[in-house]
Write a structure and sequence with these properties.
By secondary structure, the protein is α/β, with parallel strands linked by helices. The chain is built from 10 helices and 16 strands. Among the domains are: 81 residues, Beta Barrel (OB fold (Dihydrolipoamide Acetyltransferase, E2P)), CATH 2.40.50.140; 138 residues, Rossmann fold (3-Layer(aba) Sandwich), CATH 3.40.50; 40 residues, no CATH class. β15 and β16 form a beta hairpin.
């Protein structure tokens, strides 16, 4: 496009429109470029055909207006917010009517911390949808673990803090330490392998510990391989990574999150003094319970013994009373008792006399005091 100038007093003078058209035409010949910066003044309205933002150089403070068709921007699903750092691929343009210079964006990508944050958020949503962070998957820690596993770095302060907390709180504890990488690209698979090895060696609970560090230093503890290894670990896992404000994904997958390595050491073992006090209370309770049982059994045996002692006497008394009754009945029915009341038994020979005998019959008379002979008249 040829831009015409007007000759005025020996000068070539361009109108504003001609000048803007010339600059715009020249800008169209420039190649597409990548520009990096920090997102500021992001403006997106439902009725606008384009999305507007300002790309700022965080070091020099220079700014560049960026414009992108709304459909293309929405298709990227970036969910950008002010302050994020991005790479913008586009072509410089000049809006001729107003002389506004801007970069017409063709695509936008996060970089650096922003890219990692976006990737972590996507991974978090993915693993959360699979249920790896669900509360009902969390397991309680064993009250008195026989063997504690510790995964940490070599000569790390975190290892010292965990061991000091465990031995101070519960000196008889047995700890099996696996030293491995806790930073860099080899850290995540190395920690996952250490977890499996410690589980194979029979630990009852496992601590994954690392001290504080930058966001990039803690990235291995949000690696999908390590998060899945923690979630599928056959024993309860305590995560003690970074400082309290740090939340790597292993914190969400672990059964318990400790704010610091020292706290992790304290929560996996009981306090020895408290345990001894509890045992003494339990021993006293068992002793009192045993005494109560013995006392109740003694009382019961005494009662049973008394019953057994009295039972023969009661039976004998009942038998004696029964015999006395029978004896009384027999005595009342005996002939001797009848004779004592003044009656007599008269016999004629061997026969009892029931009718008046023939006069002159010899009789034998039995009375209470004896017997005598008689003759009927």
């Amino acid at each position: 496009m040829k831009v015409e100038a007007t000759e005025v007093e020996g000068r070539k003078v361009f109108s504003v429109r001609a000048f803007n058209e010339g600059v715009a035409s020249w800008l169209q010949r420039l190649p597409t470029v990548w520009v990096k910066g920090e997102v500021t003044e992001l403006r997106r309205q439902p009725r606008w055909a384009s999305v507007f933002l300002t790309l700022k150089d965080p070091d020099a403070g220079a700014c560049l207006a960026v414009q992108m068709p709304r459909g293309q921007f929405d298709a990227l699903r970036l969910d950008l917010v002010d302050g994020e750092r991005v790479h913008v691929y586009g072509r410089p343009e000049l809006y001729e009517q107003r002389g506004d210079f801007h970069l017409r964006a063709l695509t936008i990508e996060r970089y650096g911390l922003g890219a990692h944050l976006a990737a972590l958020e996507r991974l978090k949503q993915k693993l959360g949808a699979e249920g790896l962070f669900a509360a009902d998957r969390k397991r309680p820690l064993p009250r008195l673990p026989a063997l504690i596993g510790l995964v940490t770095g070599n000569d790390a302060a975190a290892k010292r803090d965990v061991l000091t907390a465990i031995t101070t709180r519960f000196p008889p504890a047995h700890v099996l330490v696996a030293e491995t990488y806790v930073q860099g690209p080899r850290a995540a698979p190395a920690i996952a392998t250490a977890i499996r090895d410690l589980c194979d060696r029979g630990v009852d609970v496992l601590i994954v510990a690392r001290g504080g560090g930058s966001f990039e230093d803690l990235l291995p503890f949000s690696d999908e391989r390590l998060v899945r290894a923690v979630a599928t670990c056959p024993v309860p896992v305590v995560s003690a990574v970074g400082h309290e404000q740090d939340t790597p994904l292993v914190d969400l997958a672990a059964d318990v999150r400790a704010s610091t390595p020292s706290v992790a050491g304290r929560i996996v073992v009981p306090d020895l003094a408290e345990l001894r006090a509890w045992l003494e209370r339990a021993h006293g309770g068992l002793a009192r319970g045993a005494r109560r049982i013995v006392d109740r059994r003694r009382e019961r045996l005494t009662t049973v013994h008394e019953r057994l002692r009295r039972t023969p006497l009661l039976a004998l008394e009942r038998r004696r009373a029964r015999l006395d009754t029978v004896h009384g009945r027999l005595r009342a029915l005996s002939p001797h008792a009848t004779l004592e009341r003044g009656y007599a038994i008269v016999r004629a020979g061997d026969e009892l006399v029931r009718e008046p005998p023939v006069p002159g019959t010899a009789l034998s008379v039995d009375v209470a005091g004896g017997a005598f002979g008689a003759r009927a008249e």
